Write a sequence for this structure.
């Protein structure tokens, strides 16, 4: 058996736990005797049922009000670690997860292993697996210092499965001092309307790259095709860097990992940066003018052709298909 | 308005990366270039300093072998000067050690109002250094900025979130991480390139920053690479040339997968 206590830094998606949190809990349950969550937000009670069902026995909760969540999270974790340190704290590689992990690693002077896609425990040894060079090479890194160990795991690395536990007990954390860091206040929250599923959870993902030619082509080609397939639209780093679409749409090493049933790459050459984020998809369809593009090395169906010719016809055919 | 921009000099991402046999870390010998991710922070800093009516933009970099090629690119864009931390003791540094070095370098420059960084580097991409630098300095951090405004001693950003974006504000001094694509980095002019050759680069060692060798590099990383192996390869499937009917093949494939 593995570790005696593992904490998961829990995040919410509305009134439910984020899928990435449930993935971490499922893995933590397998590796540790006791699994607990630390959660920053106002609605811990609403999450307690699902967190418990996925393995957490307790939720240490703190309401951050309008302070940036990760700042309060790091403060709460550091305070809790003083009195009851776990062996391992797991974070999802998300915006708030990275904020909390970065600050905590400084507060307790421990290294942070990030971008994990695998996690192994052998006795007291904890190893984080990462995929580099476009996912062609796997590297295991082992903590050699003192516990607690801190690791961030990329969403979609593990499957989320309920284990049938009872609702987690919610315990309030208070007296957290975060100093000047707490001056970062959220003034407004903007929720962008999204049609269809989230990028990381969509059964079909349609991504665009340089080959679509311009920012203006994204909506009629990529978004339209994603909509027709009840999927989500994504992007290569190249067009995010060019400012055509926001960072949130980026699939790849410095973006999101997706593992849909079908991934359609439109005008994407397939740099290693991109491949690592999508080659775990069940089926890959690629359309690219350059027959030598690396994307074809991972495609189940590769079309050497112009996206501006193939995609409009595909859209028409799908509309006719009904 | 004095701004420090943390910039990384990395092996050209267009060439395949390679691991050092002995250390199992990324080979970072030879010429390094400015990480493209950092060009947005440099551009943002130049624009913010300009809007504020003046002040210096100082580059902070940690690199092996006193590498300055990437720094010269950012100096040519318009940054005033640079601090370069280069020391054999830094080999094997993890994100926390790197942040310790960068934070100390910011303090060495002194009188900084804002530190800008990318959200992660292209080669190492641990993605925690901005927050670590902020915590070490004891400053607020505004991460994943899509837009930055400075006014009356405060910094306000649009912060990327899973759902959309949040408007987040903090008083200065502060650290902000900038997402890619939010500004268009300028190309260095010929005049800029010539001027960059004479701009000051303050080359320092770990000891100059008041850090000891066991706080950085392999000694400070508290981790070891226990295994490196090839990932199972994914087999390529069918590849066809579009003769005007490729969309039919795609429809058939989607039908077969029961997606439509």
């Amino acid at each position: 058996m593995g570790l005696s206590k593992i904490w998961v830094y829990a995040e919410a998606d509305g009134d439910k736990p984020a899928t990435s949190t449930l993935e971490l809990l499922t893995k933590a349950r397998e590796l540790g005797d006791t699994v607990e969550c630390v959660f920053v937000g106002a609605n811990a009670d609403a999450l307690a049922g699902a967190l418990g069902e996925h393995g957490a026995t307790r939720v240490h909760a703190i309401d951050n009000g309008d302070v940036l969540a990760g700042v309060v999270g790091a403060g709460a974790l550091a305070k809790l670690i003083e009195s009851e340190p776990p062996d391992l704290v797991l974070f999802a590689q998300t915006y708030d997860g990275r904020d909390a992990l970065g600050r905590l690693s400084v507060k307790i002077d421990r290294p942070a292993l990030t971008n994990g896609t695998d996690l192994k425990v052998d006795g007291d040894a904890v190893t984080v697996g990462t995929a580099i060079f476009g996912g062609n090479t796997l590297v295991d890194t082992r903590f050699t210092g003192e516990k607690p160990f801190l690791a961030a795991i990329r969403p979609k690395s593990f499957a989320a499965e309920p284990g049938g536990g009872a609702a987690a007990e919610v315990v309030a954390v208070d007296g957290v001092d975060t100093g000047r860091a707490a001056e970062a206040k959220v003034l407004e929250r903007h929720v962008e309307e999204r049609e269809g599923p989230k990028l990381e959870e969509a059964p079909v993902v349609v991504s665009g790259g340089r080959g679509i030619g311009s920012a203006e082509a994204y909506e009629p080609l990529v978004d339209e095709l994603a909509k027709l397939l009840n999927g989500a639209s994504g992007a290569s780093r190249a067009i995010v860097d060019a400012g055509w679409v926001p960072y949130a749409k980026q699939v790849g090493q410095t973006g999101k990992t997706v593992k849909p049933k079908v991934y359609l790459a439109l005008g994407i050459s397939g740099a290693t940066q991109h491949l690592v984020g999508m080659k775990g998809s069940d089926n890959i369809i690629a359309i690219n003018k350059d027959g030598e593009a690396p994307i074809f090395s991972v495609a189940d169906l590769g079309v050497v052709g112009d996206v501006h010719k193939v995609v409009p016809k595909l859209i028409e055919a799908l509309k006719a298909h009904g | 308005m004095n701004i420090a921009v943390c910039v990384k000099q990395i092996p050209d991402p267009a060439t395949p990366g390679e691991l050092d046999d002995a250390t199992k870390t990324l080979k970072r010998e030879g010429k390094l270039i400015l990480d493209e991710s950092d060009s947005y922070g440099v551009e943002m800093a130049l624009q913010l300093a300009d809007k504020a009516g003046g002040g210096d933009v100082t580059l902070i970099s940690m690199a092996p072998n006193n590498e300055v090629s990437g720094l010269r690119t950012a100096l040519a864009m318009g940054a005033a000067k640079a601090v370069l931390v280069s020391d054999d003791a830094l080999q094997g540094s993890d994100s926390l050690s790197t942040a310790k070095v960068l934070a100390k370098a910011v303090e060495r420059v002194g009188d900084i109002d804002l530190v800008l960084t990318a959200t992660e580097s292209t080669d190492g991409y641990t993605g925690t250094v901005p927050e670590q630098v902020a915590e070490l300095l004891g400053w607020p951090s505004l991460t994943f900025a899509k837009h930055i405004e400075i006014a009356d001693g405060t910094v306000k950003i649009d912060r990327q979130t899973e759902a959309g974006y949040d408007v987040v504000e903090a008083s200065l001094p502060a650290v902000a991480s900038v997402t890619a694509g939010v500004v268009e980095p300028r190309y260095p002019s010929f005049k800029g390139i010539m001027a960059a050759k004479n701009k000051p680069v303050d080359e320092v060692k770990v000891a100059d920053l008041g850090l000891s060798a066991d706080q950085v590099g392999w000694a400070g990383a508290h981790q070891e690479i226990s295994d490196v192996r090839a990932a199972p390869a994914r087999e390529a499937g069918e590849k066809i040339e579009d003769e005007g009917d490729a969309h039919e093949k795609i429809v058939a494939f989607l039908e077969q997968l029961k997606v439509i």
